Amino acid sequence: MKRTMVLAFxxxxxxxxxxxxxxxxxxxxxxxxxxxxxxxxxxxxAASAAFCDHVAAEFNPAxxxxxxxxxxxxxxxxxxxxxxxxAVQRSTGEVFDWDMAESKLGSPVTSRQ
Length: 113
Description:
Shape: globular
Mean pLDDT: 80
Largest sheet: 5 strands, antiparallel
CATH architecture: Roll
Number of domains: 1
Low-confidence stretches: 1-21
Distance between the termini: 35 Å
């Protein structure tokens, strides 16, 4: 069973499909989706998006995970690794820009094909 789930996960990743299940995407999957969509959109190397900081669940709007995406940038002195704030819809895995100042959903993040 576990092997089947791993294979389904890998198939979704390689096909570009979303991670959507009956229950929706997990917080970990939301991070992976944001990484992939953002690096595709901005034509960054995939490895440049290193990790996510998730907003506490009680502050997320209903049906979304809000997260900041960070690069693997090595900083000398004061700098930021933040690549932006994003919201991932739990039911579909769709990634949106997130306006942190207004706590408001922005435009969908789309791939540049």
